[in-house]
Amino acid sequence: MDLRSRRSHRDRDLGRRPHHQGQEVMSHDNMPEEHKLPEAHDASHGHDVAPHGDPFADPGLPVHEPRRTDIDERAAQRAERQVSLMFIVSMLATVGFIASYVVFPIDKIIYVFPLGHVSALNLALGLTLGVALFCIGAGAVHWARTLMSDHEVPAERHAIEADDEVRADVIEQFKTGAAESGFGRRKMIRNTLIGSMALVPLSGVVLLRDLGPLPETKLDHTGWQEATPAQPIQLINMNTELPMKAEDIVIGSLTFAKPQGLTQDDEQFQEKIAKDALMLVRIAPEDIKDTSSRDLGFEGILAYSKICTHVGCPISLYEQQTHHALCPCHQSTFDLSDGARVIFGPAGHPLPQLKITTDEKGFLVATGDFSEPVGPSFWERSA
């Protein structure tokens, strides 16, 4: 199709005859009625918003249709009861959230299809808090859609900064909106909303329970605290579950140990091993720089806490030539030949050391607790 043909088709689509030489172009006024474009009309303001024949005319706002609750007081009262019921359910769910802390023990496991085995406490907390928040949101939405004013009000775009007149107008509109919302007149909705909003923050207060009770001296001691020179505790190899002898540990080796009597069948095994885990190295006595550290060991065998003093990660990387132990989490590096002092990284304290010796059978034993609290530093570190 050539340019003239395309122009002819375009002119025909616009409702006018092709403009050939010697022919007059038909205007909108002398165009037949069936070819004229409809005039744009603003239904909300009752005046034309664009010139005749503008295909992109603003149709204006649709005619406002009242809702059932606007013309039927019984429907409005029913909606009010529905909104209030949602707020009441929110209050009950918040009470249930708080009660869950009392009813369900922290280690209670239940089977729920299709989730499987889950914590009863976590499930109860999630459901009750979810219902409490959902009902507040759903009640507010239902209130706005059924009882608050829904008249459409167009507004022209304006600068971000408002002048005094606009600010005064906004305040006036806020007051008008507050009056139209019925917040002051519909006391049932107001009181139940205030009640639900007042109770929900209590959920956060109850969560503070997880921060207690206070540790008191629990962070100062480990499972080795019961060891005494008269009743020492044997060191058990973490891999073989067998007592360890001094001759089993060679120079340059790294071995992990735990106190005698601690088994994986213990319900609190993970909690205890997080403090009791040992890291044993054997260094030639002449290479040990710190004399007090050498005295706590036995023939060059030194027992340090395996728990990093930064954030509590387990240390498992050892360099034989330099006697450096590296924490894989944040690269804190400890010199085990010099009292496990920190030579690099964010850790703030050396690794605590355990005093060890051998019993009459040659097994390695501990005669006391660590020299200082193990793990990350805390606000009342006692050493």
UniProtKB/TrEMBL annotation:
PROSITE patterns, alphabetized: RIESKE
Compositional bias per record (Basic and acidic residues), positions renumbered to this chain: 1-16, 26-51
Q: Does the UniProt entry include the keyword Electron transport? A: yes
Fetch the Gene3D superfamilies from UniProt.
Rieske [2Fe-2S] iron-sulphur domain
Topology relative to the membrane, per the entry?
Multi-pass membrane protein
User: What UniProt keywords are attached to this protein's entry?
Assistant: 2Fe-2S, Cell membrane, Disulfide bond, Electron transport, Iron, Iron-sulfur, Membrane, Metal-binding, Oxidoreductase, Respiratory chain, Transmembrane, Transmembrane helix, Transport
Q: Name all Rieske domain ranges.
A: 301-365
Q: Which Pfam families match?
A: QcrA_N, Rieske
Q: Where is this region: Disordered?
A: 1-66
| Localization per record | Cell membrane
Q: Where are the transmembrane segments?
A: 83-104, 124-144, 191-208
The family line of this record is: Belongs to the Rieske iron-sulfur protein family.
Purpose: Iron-sulfur subunit of the cytochrome bc1 complex, an essential component of the respiratory electron transport chain required for ATP synthesis. The bc1 complex catalyzes the oxidation of menaquinol and the reduction of cytochrome c in the respiratory chain. The bc1 complex operates through a Q-cycle mechanism that couples electron transfer to generation of the proton gradient that drives ATP synthesis.
Q: Spell out the protein name for this chain.
A: Cytochrome bc1 complex Rieske iron-sulfur subunit
The species is Kitasatospora kazusensis
